[in-house]
Amino acid sequence: MASEKNGFSFTWIIENFDYSWDREYDRIKSPSFIVNGIDKSKWHLVIGEWIDDDFPKFFFHRESFCKGPEWIEVDAELEYLKADGSSLSSDIYVNLPLSPGDTCILFDHKVIEEGFRIDKQTFFPRGTLKVRCTLWKSREEEEMNREEMEKSVWCLGRTIIGVKRRSFNWVNFIQEKSNYRIMPESEDEIDISLNLLSKGQLHYIRIRLITDIKSAMYMTFKYALITANGNSLEWGEKEFHFSFYSTEAEFPLQISTEELAAKMSLCLPNDDLTLQCECAYSTRIVYQQIESIDYSPFSNQPENYAENALPDPLRALKDNLSSLYSESFLSDVKLKTNTSTHPAHKAVLSARSPVFKTMFQTEMREKIGQCVEIPDLDEETVRLMLQFMYTADLKDLRWNSACQLYEAADKYEILSLKKICTSFLVSNLSVTNACELLALFDMHQDADQKLTVQEFILNRDAEFFSSDEWNIFTETNTKLAADTMVLKFKKLAEMPHSTE
């Protein structure tokens, strides 16, 4: 911190910052805050006007019609914060005269610009940007008024940019003029059309927005070619910026026609090549709030102030356990799949899973030995499961991995992991994947979630029962399809009938 004087410090956390929308025109405004120690004046920060799509400018704004004199002279410091709350870089501005409605630009220099280009993960890890702006009365202001701020104040504001994710399987996508429609299922979703285009030996996917959007929108699109056993052959990730004037984009698949033909023997039944997709797009700001205000000397900031304001003991513990797993230090057991071996620690596995705890009890120790065979789980699923068991973190969860992790969590009774996977799957439920999820919940005897999916189907029965997905499902899961139809007839029987 640049000064030991009493001052006002505003920490601003912007979640999903990597989904910021139109970086040329749009700005993100912070929650407003009132600085009682500077004549009860009212302020906010603004981030926007990106430079070369990499580095944002910050603006410091005194709001119109706020209290205080016609002009106030302040000193200010703006800092970028690391994930643990420590300062990554800062800049200090002195003697800023600001009248109500005035704005001044902050933090526009090459060092930070290069940092954004080279190491974005350092500046906004996990998509979250954290900045801190500290205000003091300028020396001239104090000399004029013969007083400084009575107390130091720490204020926390949070802004969350909404992100909507849709996961689906595009079956037999390689057919000529193949297309897929992502229909909106709520008011905040958009209608998206996908088309496959062939240009020589390459295939392109064109994304077109059917819904008219009034402002800019940022979208990421992930895809993977899926084999019959659920493995990914090819994958990729793209990002796009759409606007009212630009509603289409296309990109090439990283696999040629000849390569696709060579992989047909690995495809799903009936020669159906399947592309597993996930699109995610910004839905503007969904939350903006001043969350806390604390009073403390700058030299003794409250430890429980703000998320990650100082190194968090729990975060340090997670980091240590993550290192224990990644470095395999003192590992005493191995989990072995058909293709890989994963060193682990019996104590951690036993603490997280009652099934593993039973395995490692004295009477089973000799039988288990130093290796646990897991032939029914693939390498990636075991890796993600262990990552969660050590750190309680799941990164980049997708539909296919969520289904497989759900099965693993149910098998080993890792209830917190099962809950996360269930929430992800149900929140991404759609007409194209409902049958798959219904079968999954039925196989694992999850009656509550099974009913959730059945009600989803019955609420869309006209559209659903005429779909190809349902026709295939009735052939492969006859009893489960019949149970769902029985539920439909029961609902009809319970509906009130006219007595005319």
From TrEMBL:
Top-level taxon of origin: Eukaryota
Gene Ontology biological-process entries: protein catabolic process
InterPro entries reported in the protein's UniProt record: BTB/POZ_dom, MATH/TRAF_dom, SKP1/BTB/POZ_sf
Pfam families per UniProt: BTB
Residue span(s) of domain BTB: 331-398
SMART domains according to UniProt: BTB
PANTHER family: SPECKLE-TYPE POZ PROTEIN
Protein name (database record): TD and POZ domain-containing protein 1-like
Phylogenetic lineage: Eukaryota, Metazoa, Ecdysozoa, Arthropoda, Chelicerata
